[in-house]
Amino acid sequence: MQPISCNAMSDGPVIGALPEDVAIAIVGAGFGGLGMAIRLKQQGVHDFVVLERASDVGGTWLANTYPGCQCDVPSNLYSFSFAPNPDWTHSYPLQAQIQRYLRRCAERFGILGHTHLSCELQEAAWDSTSGRWQIETSSGRLRAKVLVAAPGLLSEPVAPPIPGLDGFGGTVFHTARWDHRHDLTGERVALIGTGATAIQIGPQIRPKVARLHVFQRTPGWVLPHLDRAIPRSFRRLYARVPAIQRLARHGVYTMREALAAGMTHHLRLLSLVKLVARAHLRVQVRDPVMRAQLTPRYDVGCKRALLSNDWYPMLAGPNTELVTAPIAEVREHSIVTADGVERPIDSIILATGFRPTDPPIAYRLRGADGQLLADVWKGSPQAYLGTAISGFPNLFLLYGPNLNLGHSSIVYMLESQIHYVQQAIALLRRADVKALDVRPTVQRAYNEDIARRLSTTVWDTGGCASWYLDANGRNSTMWPDYTFRYRRRVDRFDVADYDIEHAARSPAATTA
Ligand code: NAP
Asked: In the beta sheet, which residues pair with residue 137?
């Protein structure tokens, strides 16, 4: 395993015409799509394309460029196991570094030449006669025997349905679409939302704005952030002796799994986390009224715990106001809260999150009977192993339903999943295998088991309304166990879980 440098970056992704027919089409060039492409390449499979709607690779780490954007999973764990990065400058990686890391991976493993940028999937429909996905993109059409969809979980920003927001006369933008042309200096700024994104932004912009009004609907649990600069000597050591970084990675992984124990199996362990969070609040916020406003009323872990050392001090700062009254309406140059107070505002920043349980891709995929995935899911995404969906042959979702984590790195889950999909693809590359479709009974039993196991986790019992729950109140996002259990579960592709359609008699040779 060669370490990979994240600091150097070269230009030149290949943007060629789409092929008419490929073995595998991968949608998305974030950690999931790139990881899949790299593993295929390493396996000697070259007949694939990566379709990416953005103008570069990186997925969420390309899209989110707001001030202070940083991953809250430690650096050593937030990278591919096969491409360690000795150049992380912080124990928690910064957005620009992650994006550069992914770009370097795409270059080094030869993925750019397969990648079609600014190419958005518009519709893909399974054609059971030809055994191909018929794919429409913004750059043209193609057919693929296998479709791997890796659109990411948190890629569709949500603008809240606040009355009058459309008529606001100042500047308004979502955190995932940060307007870098707009200068907030000296402005009266409204920051709506107090989740993982808002707490990174607030302390960054407060020094430059005239006034920062933070509109909080639900206070979250905030823990001390253990982020540290990684000394140059350490980085050199990681580069020279990759085994040391691997050891560090294992250490971080193991500690993180202990958190999974608290969230899923032994909820009482979370009282320790709560003690730390309460102490953090007590030390950082002296005013008892504000402290009460900031004290969460749900169990720690139910929503994603927030990491910050400067959020609370920022809220107590001279030019900041914590607003806890609900927003009643937005007017042309102000925001009015339910208590009748009107605050003049120049810019509104929507730190209001994403729409993971009703993803746009579900409105773009049609299965064997022509049914739209969104109509099958009806607001409650379900899949087998978060990967295969009955009625949608040869389709594999990466970071699909019930694979999200509250404690560890999604890259670990993705690598597990990719290993599983690779086995399915190996089978499908045989000319005599036309299609694999997961059996409905297998998918149903799996999801019943997941729901049963989730029912006792903190996400379902912790008394919060989080984005983990879908419109039907079902938890369709979280993985209810340790990550190594998922890895074991997907270690071997069991063909008995699938209905196999064989092609008309032909020699059992590979197709790609
Ligand atoms: P989020 O966790 O969904 O938070 C959205 C915030 O907006 C919440 O405080 C929510 O309040 C508030 N909100 C939503 N609608 C509102 C309305 N109509 N009026 C007032 N407030 C409203 O979104 P996020 O902060 O962008 O984070 C989303 C996820 O992205 C995180 O959970 C995490 O997984 C990921 N993330 C990760 C990192 C990282 O470091 N790796 C950084 C940022 C984000 P309620 O709580 O009352 O709903």
From this structure: 121, 140
